[in-house]
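Journal club prep — side note

Before the paper discussion, L.F. wants everyone to see what a predicted structure for a comparable chain looks like in token form. Sequence:
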Amino acid sequence: MDSKIKLVAITCAGLVVATILGIVALYHIGTRKQDDLRKQVTEAVTGIEGAENAETALQDAALYEEYGLDPAKNPYAFLDDEAFFEKPLAEQEGEKVSLLVTSVQKDIRIHVVGEDGAPVGGVLFSVMITDSLGNPVSDSGSPDVPERSDTPGKSDAQDNSGDAQTEQKEQPEQTETSPANDREEEPAAPQAQPGVYHDEDEDGMIFVSGLPGGDYKVSLLPTDGYVVPGSDTPIGVSDELSYTLLSDISFLIKSEDEIDAKEEDTGVNEAERDADGTETNVRLADGASIFGIDVSKWNKEIDWKKAKQAGVEFAIIRCGYRGSKTGALVEDPYFEKNIKGAQEAGVRVGVYFFTQAVSAVEAVEEASMVLTLCRDYQIAFPMYIDTEGAGGNGRADGLDVDARTEVVRAFCETIENAGFTAGVYASKNWLEKKLHADSLASYQIWLAQYARSATYQGEYGMWQYTSAGKIDGINTLVDFDVSYMDY
């Protein structure tokens, strides 16, 4: 029994020794292979142009053996491939632009803005609009029917389609010998594509109308020289009009340097037309009223301290107007100077805006402009919409009573929803014949009637009784007003 145990012990010890010797041998073989591999890799990489300190770069040559790599190739070559990694936006070439997208009612208003927040003009930008299912959408609300729109309520495709067909019919067929072939070809117009809209007048703005309520996405298509957003901009479109401040309205406000003021600022004083010749141009003062004036660019430079000393307690200042021809939103060039001067002199202020809106949507735009221009000032008196004619050729002159009243209501609702007091300025004739004045009774009425005494039977809180007033500090004739409410 003992001899058998000894034999087994000796055998086991022999196996252990053999195993250890085998492991040592394999280790030496592996080490030699690894050294040979490292040497081979080092030699290969050292021969690659631009490779430096290859021994350091490839310290673990076992990587090649583990993953079956070719030692003759540089595993870091991808770092030199400019196309391997997508460049971050900040490193891409060109000006970075973004989209500001809003909606009023059944429309999408798109502004392509630069890093300074201003619209980028002079560039033919294009956008793609898709619905919640990803289908391209036209301004008729149907997928796959592209129509371009660059002005509210108006499609460029619809405007230009007739002209394009006429030109095609009248233009003779050109042959190889025709002189026209020697001329430089005009740039081709953008091709109509489903859901694609173009900024054809290159002002950085695209308006798309006629869309049903729903959720949409807007993407700016790649444009040479510009870095466009890498993701879509979502926008919700409502079937109902929201009487709220438009955040993008500042982009639409123009100065008179940008328009033809002679053609755009053509408001006609309806009260002067209806004057009966009995008006007085002296200050009306009694214990039940407050004396004030209303001014605009037509009154030029004003010395507000002298006007205050002469008894002016309040001033209604024109902040702007909508162009009677193009519909542009224009700031009165004297607005900022007037409102600052009046307030510094201690004169309380209100403002008015001459409307040429032809829809409730445009009235919301006008109210938004007023609110934006007045955001830095203390407005004590109402914000009025001035509704009167523009010489018969104004874009809003032909509105019927219902449409005009709806415009006025939309303006006032937007002002009231922003927390301010809204009012309506109109002549006696307009209040009686061109507006549903009874439906506007919840707003402040500013009556314009040039007579010794007002004969308008409706309610009003302010009366403009002459346009021929004279007062210290103002070198022109000026409108005189009395307010029966101390706002």
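L.F.'s comment for the group: The first strand starts at residue 95 and ends at 96. Keep this in mind when we get to the figures.
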